[in-house]
Amino acid sequence: MPKLRVLGVVGLLVASVLAGCGADPPEEELSVLASSELADMGPLLDDLHKDTGVRLRMDFQGTVDASNALVPLGRDRHQAAWLSTDSYFQLRLAKSGFTGEPPLAKHTMVSSVAIGVKPAVAQTLRSSAADGQVSWADVAELAAAGKLRFAMADPRHSGSGLTALIGIATAAAGTGKPLRPEDVTCDRLHGLFAGHAAADTAQDVLETYRHDEDGLDGVVNYESTLLSLNARGGLRTPLEIIRPKDGAVLSEYPMLLLDPAKRRAYDAVVEWLLRPDNQRKIMEHTFRRPVTADVDPVEQLRVPIGTALYFPDRQDVVDRLLTYYETESRPRDVIFVLDYSGSMRGASIAALRAAFDGLSGADDTDSGKFARFATGEQVTVVRFAQQVAGEQTVKVTRPEDLDELRRFVAVEDFGEGTAVWGALERGYQVAADHLRENPDRVVSIVLMTDGLNNAGPTADDFLHRYPDFPAHGVRTYAIRFGTAGAAELDRVATATGGHMVDATATSLPTAFKEIRGCE
Amino acid sequence: MSELCRWGLSVVTTEPLLRLVPGPLPVRKRRLFRWVFLPISTFALGGILLLLFSGTVLVPFEGNEPVEGITGSKGAFFNDDTVKRELLRHHIKVHVTDVGSRSILARDFAGVDFAFPSGAPAAQQIKQKAAGAARDPVRVFTSPLVLATFREFAETLQAAGVATPQDAGPGSLYYKLDMAAFLDLVDEGKRWSTLSVQDHNGGRRIDNVIVAQTSDFCSANSASSYLTLVAYARGAQRVPTDVPAAERLGGEIKNLLDGQGRTDDALAGTYLADANVARTKPIVVIYEHQYLEHQIRRSATPAGLDRDRVLLYPDIQLIAEPEFIPLSDRGEALGSLLAGDEVLRTRAVELGYQLNTVQGDAESLNRLLDDKHIPIPPQINSTVGAPGLDELEAMIKAVSPCRS
Measuring CA to CA, which residue among A1, A515, A132 is closest to residue B38? Predict the structure, then answer.
């Protein structure tokens, strides 16, 4: 059949041209600085190479570390960056004064931060939550009570840690808006972080959890990573994934072009990643959600993730959050210096009791859950009238410790004078003692008074002596109540680096709550 | 490379040549095959191969280089497969860089054949910058600015007396939005929970305050257009006509616009992808064509119309008019094609655009929607014109700190 052979030859020729056309594009390499968790893309990148001829040479780093390495632009030698989020990078870039053409960026997939917990913990969380809808406040409450120990990546290095921190801080601020600098004047997350077992980048967190499955109750990480952890089956108890009702900050995995000369390769890679069939493969393999239309979610992803918690548009907000985070692992020590002069009788002492009840766990609002005393915290109460009348220190390890503290606060033993500044001096002596025991402590003082100073040293005396106190630098936060003088309280508090809160405008419990985390 | 393949394939598959016929052919057919079909087809194939190898088939259009464009969201038009095919038929390959309409201005125009901003203000600035290089712009299609949302949020706004469904039934795709009343909700910092969104979404509380999320005011035409709309609604139903007034008004409306943190440059993409991800942003500002393209595509699938995603039409409307600005001869040739080619025009309508009345039939979109049993969007009679360039810039600056 010579004719057919001819036809065959022609056909083969055409076929080989066409095949060559599809499978043999020019070989090219693209060096990519990538977020650590993208190591899971490995097998898919082989397909990408086969289809496009572009081989991604990936170097992995925590997203925050990578973002820091990329600014100023041009210093890093990678040709592209593939980050869980470029928000931090863009903020850094803007702050660096960069005004040139920003790198092209294309979202490639989406995930958001969630918390995976053991089923029993999930049950506890749901039963303590209003309508069974768990919020970050419920998580914080359980963590502060020492009943939820979790692993979470360090937000100073890792994208999952940073977006988690921003999301949780936004939920704690409770404004329903992006965080503003004034929302981050205090550390509201100490209670939550009482349950934090530190770890580094996203992958390490999973290692931490796998190695200490008995000692830990959960992991804060991307929904995708948690689902993968369950799917791989290495855990004795699969994690139940809770997406707190407050919502989440989205991570959209932008691919950024750093070297404009690699545009062709970049375009090919992005086009490949965004093809619906590849989006589906990515989703099935990594549990990251698609960014293109018409890809039906897999079973595990048919779950609402709530509303966006915003990534702030200001670098200073993020910096401030990270500064507070630095102190999270250090032990807390709060010294309350409380006025027990006669005018505190009746409604006032009732309000003070209510304030301590609230901080001990009775306040069921979201802000109350974030504000409560946390396991590991050391709390001292100094009662004063014309002089210091009593002192008690408890280290919070069990609920009974807080009961003891509340009993001490509730004692109706009032004196006649009001030695505000003498009592505060005593507060600084206690602070000095505590710092001597453990210099790593984060110590602060809360001074509450309802009258004018009429015994002992004056405010000026106090301020004169303050620089010589061994514990100077410890901040005082003043709560003004009753007929106390606002100007003087504010002057002293500000001189120590703290500030005054006016409880006459709100209530004592609100004022105590407001000042929590500032200390 | 993939273009070459697609083109090559489409040529070959239209010929029966590659169908290898199993078994012996009848004698008559064999003769026909040997003396007529085979020589012709071999010749044709040889020619094709030659052309493929020389590359001339692809872009005889001044060498092998694609026509380079810098665009806003309209760059997507050139990435559509039908558009690509039609352009290749005319030996044109287009490569676009979507940087956001307002950021086009900051780019270097060297080696760029056209700019394609999504709206008139950016176009005007680009033409000023390009001066001599800019040729007559081509205005092919338009699309109104819309607020895209999901059913439960539209129903929540309806219950609050701010939105009215266009169709009486439960499945209306379109709602008219009382813009003044909506902005009052935003101004008061009303939360979705306060408006009882949980009555419409199966009981889930949403404590975020209500805001329409936009792309970056500094770079996106859709965002600056929404800003214009808000300025008009809050500025006694007119846009400011001098810079001090614009600065003042910008300061006044800032809180209605900026409560959204870092903005998303791919809002329409996010809105149309995974529904659970999309719902993280309850209301987003996009163009109507982006939504209609989705519905036109969906209407052709077994799933049918997407009745989950719905549009809010502000009762004052801003219609964006993309301008194709040629910056070279090649750009100009592409522009002429865009203006005159029937296939491209038809495709634009299928992608949800309204044709410009000068270039085509403004009714063609409605006819297409009707054909596909997609409800026709409401007619909004009150439209807002763009403010002067200086006034717009002043308002943007008052609302958002731009990089440059």
Answer: A1
Residue A29 to residue A265: CA distance in whole angstroms? 8
B262–A245 CB contact, under 8 Å? no
Beta pairing class for A254-257 and A80-82 = antiparallel
Q: Cβ A133–B42 below 8 Å, yes or no?
A: no
Domain of B27 in residue numbering reads as: 2-54
Rg (CA), chain B: 25
> In one letter, which amino acid is A220?
V
Rounded CA separation B150/A515 (Å)? 40
Domain with residue B287: its CATH number is 3.40.190
Give yes or no for B281 touching A (CB within 8 A). yes
Find the DSSP H helices in B188-242.
221-234
Per-residue pLDDT of chain A (519 residues; tens, 9 = 90+): 444 454 444 444 444 444 444 456 789 999 999 999 999 999 999 999 999 999 999 999 999 999 999 999 989 999 999 999 999 999 999 999 888 888 999 999 999 999 999 999 999 999 988 888 999 999 999 999 999 999 999 999 999 999 999 999 999 999 999 999 988 877 889 889 989 886 666 568 888 898 889 999 999 999 999 999 999 888 999 999 999 999 989 999 999 999 999 999 999 999 999 999 999 999 999 999 999 988 999 999 999 888 889 999 999 999 999 988 888 878 899 999 999 999 999 999 999 999 999 999 899 888 899 998 999 999 999 999 999 999 999 999 988 999 999 999 999 899 999 999 999 999 999 999 999 999 999 999 999 999 999 999 999 999 999 999 999 999 999 999 999 889 999 999 999 999 999 999 899 999 998 888 776
Among chain A residues, the shortest Cα distance to B205 is held by A245
Specify the number of domains making up chain B. 2
- Output the pTM of the full model: 0.86
Task: Supply B385's token pair.
Answer: 């014109």
Report yes or no on B35 lying in a domain: yes
Number of domains in chain A: 3
State residue B359 phi and psi, 5-degree precision: -90, -25
Cβ distance B204 to A292 less than 8 Å, yes or no, reads no
A495 with A417, same domain: the answer is yes
Given B11, B34, B54, the domain boundary residue is B54
Neighbouring-strand partners of residue A117: A218, A240
Q: How far is B369 from chain A (nearest CA, A)?
A: 20
Q: What is the CB neighbour count within 10 angstroms for residue A385?
A: 22
Tell me the H-state helices in B208-319: 221-234, 243-257, 267-272, 275-278, 288-299
**B39 and B176 both lie in a single domain:** no
Which chain A residues are within 8 Å of B262, Cβ to Cβ?
A: 87, 90-91, 310-313
Domain that holds residue A492: 330-515
Contact indicator for A210, A216 with CB cutoff of 8 Å: no
Longest dimension (CA), chain A: 121
Scan residues 209-248 of B and list those with Cβ closer than 8 Å to A. 209
Contact A14 B272 (CB under 8 A): no
> What is this model's ipTM?
0.86
What phi, psi does A443 have (nearest 5°)?
Answer: -105, 140
Strand partners, B245: none
Query: Do A252 and A85 form a contact (C-beta atoms < 8 A)?
Result: yes
**Residue B194 included in any domain:** yes
Q: Are residues B286 and B155 in the same domain?
A: yes
